[in-house]
Fold ATP-dependent DNA helicase RecQ.
Amino acid sequence: MKNKQEILDVLQNYFGFDDFRPGQEETINALLEGKDTLSILPTGAGKSLLYQLPAYLLSGTILIVSPLISLMQDQVDRLHRQGEKRVIMLSGQLVGKERASVLRNLKSFKFIFTSPEMLDNQQVLTALKKNKIALMVIDEAHCISQWGPDFRPEYLLLKEVRQQLGSPTTLLLTATATPRIRQDILKKMGMATAYQVIKSVDRPNIFLAVKSIATQKEKDGELLKLVQKFTGPGIIYFASRKLASQMAEWLENQTDLNVAAYHAGVAPIERFRIQNQFMNNELQVICATSAFGMGIDKNDIRYVIHYHLPSNLENYLQEIGRAGRDGKQSLAVLLYANGDEMIQRQLTSVDVPPVTVLEQIKNGELSASVLGEQASLFEFYLEHSFTPQQIITMFERRKIQTEKELQEMVAYIKENGCKREYLLTYFGEQFDGSNEFCCDYELSDWATKLILPVSQPLSENNKVGWEDRLKALLNITES
Ligand code: ADP
Ligand code: MG
């Protein structure tokens, strides 16, 4: 058992912080006592510290599972800047002799970052098994409970991976999870009795607004008005890449702001440039798809506008949570035209094939390619010995759940009372109504009243190091 002073010394000496933020100390104490823990702390709360600090008090390696290379790279860079060199990223880029050598020498690393897909590789798992894993961390643990064509089924294997590694003390981290999702995550990890540290998902400095609009055309006009009124930096989310690009161009022409599009269809070198300019306040507005955001550590984003609604409130909260990490007044506004939810319904829909088709694929009588884009998703389950009937049942169930979540998103939009209260209730919390500047409830002229602080272009010596950014860039092409 470590005493309080010992822990505070590490906080001071390795991280340069004097105090813990809410939820940090409680989580760290639980981990040091060997308790499996689920920590739900809002974006920007300091979740990385929860596993970085215990690393200096435990013997053995910290294994961190993360969904995106860019997120891993960001953590690796941060650890390097803190002077920690014993860090490695096990990704698909590591190949050949280099990979063999790293796998042989895993003992020399204190922090190993990897993806769920890598852990599905027997060679990697065997190498990891030879090491003492002091702590296994699953960052962005809500991924375990996600759905849709983007779902990464390898997340479902983590329960077994964990067992194979000897069930090390495990930390699950996320910023948003309803009580139902919490239960789902714990169940899928086989960690029903985990200790839970849950802090409010509320971000009191983000004003919540919804604007209902009759037609798409009017929506564009409204967007233009808002963007001209608010001082950036801001992010505008679109459901499609094409629209994100078109609107970026349009806004760039219509205003004197610098606007760029950011999504998976933009070339990596271009994305690198855009991210860099945005970090340095040379770009004021980014028109993005949901691909932009995770791993963006810019704390003075003033507003997040949704041109299209996201597929559920978890995603909404994640996306608006990128605003106002500096604690200053910020804004989340959602533009809604009747029927907008159809777009999301299309994006998240998975066509469930007839059970006979799956059976034929399973027996090798039919190629999985008949399933189109979703072939690999179904193949994954078949390969991992799910029966066709189990797969169909699972998909049908999820379909119902996805629709329910979308309806709850729409209900938020149509809520005539306090939006914050609705949101917090959805996440199983109570709202005491103490936020003075809360949401557009009874505040029809919020757009005039809301004054956002201005950000200045950074001076030369405050700019984000291009070396770090370039390194991140070189790693973002892989998924
Ligand atoms: P999260 O993963 O919860 O979004 P991060 O781990 O990225 O948050 O941390 C956000 C920021 O907060 C980082 O810049 C980090 O250095 C800082 N931070 C974390 N813990 C503390 C603390 N106890 N005191 C001051 N700053 C902290
Ligand atoms: Mg994080």
